[in-house]
Amino acid sequence: MTPLAKLLEAALFASDRPVLLDELYALDPESSPAAFAMALDEIRECYDNQGHGVELVELGGGWQVLTRPEFTETIERAQLASRPQRLSSAALETLAIVAYRQPIGRADIEEIRGVSVGGMLKTLLERGLIDVVGRGEGLGRPLRYGTTPAFLEQFALRHLGELPRADELAVALRAEPRPL
Question: From CA 132, how far away is CA 146, in angstroms rounded?
Fold first, then answer.
């Protein structure tokens, strides 16, 4: 591995969150963005070609070294890793509306869901999955919400364009087994 790839690998290993490219560039300001891209490719290929239990993943606008998905359940069962807190179905529904319709205001979300969402928005804000991204026009200039990089990280997405399309969701939901 090149010295730059080793440096990036060490930085990514030390971080518990995706590291943004600007943060990686700060590690060696004299290297070019192309050199960083080649070093990241080198790390990814090393992990993939040599059968490592970890992989280099682009998430939420940054890069992170993660356990390969096939080992996640076993490691969680052994309680070697912290499990993310689960969201209620109401919180997930609210989060999905924000993700697909952002920036969106509380009144619009409540119109779609048909219930008050103040508590759900507070929960999602506290978990860092959504944030206030602006204000709407009109009376009181209501807050508008959007997803955060933590949302992308939590759902293993590089960008919002990777969200399933509506027609894909219908197929996926039909394929899911229903709990008894």
Answer: 6
Single out the residue of 89, 88, 84, 81 nearest to residue 151, CA to CA: 84
Rounded to whole angstroms, the Cα distance separating 6 from 22 reads 17
How confident is the model over 7-64, as pLDDT tens digits?
999 999 998 888 999 999 999 999 999 999 999 999 999 999 998 999 999 987 889 9
Give the torsion through C-alpha atoms of 79, 120, 175, 154, to 10 deg. Answer: -40
For the chain, the helix, strand and coil percentages under 3-state DSSP, each to the nearest 5: 50, 15, 35
Tell me the pLDDT band of 173, cut-offs 50, 70 and 90. low
End-to-end CA distance of the chain: 51
To the question of pTM greater than 0.90 for the whole model, the response is no
Beta-carbon contacts of residue 87 (< 8 Å; ≥ 6 apart): 95, 123, 127
DSSP state of 114: S
d(C-alpha 78, C-alpha 165), whole Å: 35
